[in-house]
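TA notes. Do not distribute before section.
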Amino acid sequence: MIKSTALSEARKNAPPHLDKSVNLLLIGLDSRKDMDGNDLPRQFVEDELHAGSSEIGGYNTNALIVLHIPANGGKVTALSVPRDDYVQTVGADGKMHKIKEAYGIAKEAAEQKLAGKGLSKAALERQSREAGRSATIRTVQSFLDVPIDHFAEVNLIGFYDIAKAVEPVQVCLNHPVDDPIIARTATHEGGGTGLKLPAGISSLDAAQALSFVRQRHHLTNGDLDRTHRQQAFLSSVEYRLKQQGILNDLGQMQKLFAVVKKDVVIDNEWNILDFAQQAPNLTGGNVEFNTLPISGFKTVGGQEVNTVNPDLIRKIVRQLFKHEPAPAVPAVVPVAPSGDAPGDPAPSPSATPTPSATPKAVVDINAVAGAGAAANESRALAELGYQTGRIGDAPARTRATAVGYGAGAKAEAQRLAARYGVNAVFSSGIPAGRVLLTLAVSRTPSPTAVPSGAPGETSADSAAGLPMQGPAVKAGGIPCVD
């Protein structure tokens, strides 16, 4: 893999470490150029990947995910930073920008400084990218108020190579998607990935996987839903590698890294093979992905940006990474329409259930795998405080797990939906005070994903009660997302 020294500069003014935990930053770079600054082949980028020409995309970091590995070896917490968050950049020009732009701004400034030094095109590209990486790391550190210990950067071709090495990758959608390609014209930038998938589980090749994580049109929440796609893809890849036994086989891992080494950049102090064996929860599926909240939208310089509350963001991060008490927080922009019944008020995001509170709604369960599977899940939910209801079979054609609810059962349904990584939807056909759970995929939810305030919720690194941007995506299986 390509080694980078970008972390050295970023460490000089990094926030202090309070314990022996480790923070990793994953950077997804939306660049259509190779490591030497040459355009990727047009036929490959435009015709096979449907990713537009090398003239677009620039050097935006369209994925920023911080993985926190606690010192005590507990559950790994992953936090995604939405790419359009409007923040104070560090190491770029010091001004307010979308966080994704810190890389490109710093790279361009470095190119101008290096232009008269007689460097080759390839050398200029490599050195200026180092400035972009450093600025991205420093900006993330400042925004979240945590130090970054290691980082990995993957560009467009690097992502494709990784997906190609592990394909097919299974993903699960709550709803079917159809994202037709719109041609670029003089008046329209074009767009669309060409992705067309049914609801439920699909097996993707490398090109489809890239479309899956890049789609933002025809999604209810645009880029915010795309962030959940990225999280789900990482979970599915980890699950596939684990099922194949690769994560426990040093020789197989070496072969995998050899395939992707030319397009993946890591810091020069990180030995990934050793690290993977030292962090079993990271490679064992004990990871929970959450997306940091935004507070709204506004237009700056003709561009729509996400407004954020930096103080709230840092409180959330401290709660998750350092186990501080959960902050009292204001409402945030919802991830999707509530779909609630008229007159059924939504619970306040700042309201934290008391420890004695238990779900009161009755949960009816139907499962594609049969009434036996439904009965097993009913017993598991009963242990978490839910009232058991009717059990039965779900139609074989059912492709996605779903949670529906009747009037007055919204709060309980939302907590239950978070357990399965789906959204709760109101239905006038479901009796008042009841929740209907339809299990389409035979897989066990994470044991840490319990209803907020239910018996057994004692994990200090749980995001329950915090105002995250949409439901958590839990690794260890094939999570369903929008």
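Switch to the second chain here.
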Amino acid sequence: MTSANTPQPSTSDDATASLPLLELRDGLSDVVDEESALTETVEAFRAGTGPVAVDAERASGYRYSHRAYLVQLRREGSGSALVDPIPFGDLSALGDAIVDTEWIIHAANQDLACLAEVGMVPREVFDTELAGRLLGYPKVGLASLVSEVLGYRMRKEHSAADWSTRPLPAPWLVYAALDVEMLIELRNSIEQELRREGKWEWAEQEFAAILDAPPREPKPDPWRRTSGMHRVRNRRSLAVVRSLWEARDQIAESADISPGRILPDAAIVEAASAMPTDRDTLQKLTAFKGRGAHRHMRTWWEAVDHARRLPDSELPKQGPRYDGPPPARAWADRDPDAAARLSAARTAVAEIAEAHRLPTENLLAPDTIRRLAWSPPTDVNLEVVTTFLRDHHARPWQIGLTAEVLTDAMTSEAPAKPLD
């Protein structure tokens, strides 16, 4: 898609590049970090027309918090803006200026929370990543979609940068500005494709569901997600993992530093496996020889010693708490009928997804299928299954495609196939 506002292809020194490199059409604007500049930006975006492209940069891997360290916007008639939220803390005036229009966000679930923290909450979104999934694109990253749909190659070199750095280097700012440079054109092209394929109403329901989703509840026992946990064999060692993880988390939150930069997961697992009996033995472990580990060695030893002294009644259970069905691989032995239902349901849903060029997980959440197959409602029929799906947050388009085949699967007497 091209228009008077579409940037013209630029040359690239990379002889292997098959696509023109995307460049800023208006040049790089100054970062908005003073009240007067913010006021001008608010008025400029209030006066613009059409949807607003919005993006945010966090410092994942560097900071404990998930706050936004840069907010990028672009709108027809307003141009582009790079806003530093740190000097202001609250950007609700900017959010209010554009609240009545659609916000185009790539992977909205990743940015909505940090935008809300600074007072920017949309009433309508268009998620280009989710739309790409509905259209069956094999790669739905922003760079991949811009390449496939609009024919431009995007820079990727600063995707893992520490955006809490101040001042932000100019090459990083160019990279950030490019993230909203083509979002409006991308959104328009994707909408046309959604309409051609009869998936526009699906997309509308998905976008509405993003905004209607309740805040994410903290997962129980977050320490169980420590990398390398499979090496921890007993409950006492699990207690060491928990104790070290919690001690590290307190330090990380207080200093606003990513936990892994204070003590790597490998150190936690090594201590849990070795079960040292004194501080000297702990600090001799390979993973504890780094500067960060030594800096808090007293804390680490106190955490290990606390876990070593816990009574058996206070040790964590071997497996995580979970209110859903057991792992599918155990179903054939524990409940062959449930295994047969799950096999039939998975097969039917996968066939529908393939027919409509959809990832299976976007057609229906795998957890919903498992819960239905493990504990189906009494007197299964289409109405009951429809109600079950609705109660588990399936959208109308998903229910329309899957309710009937899932009803059949719940009454299937086919033999169970091995389940992963």
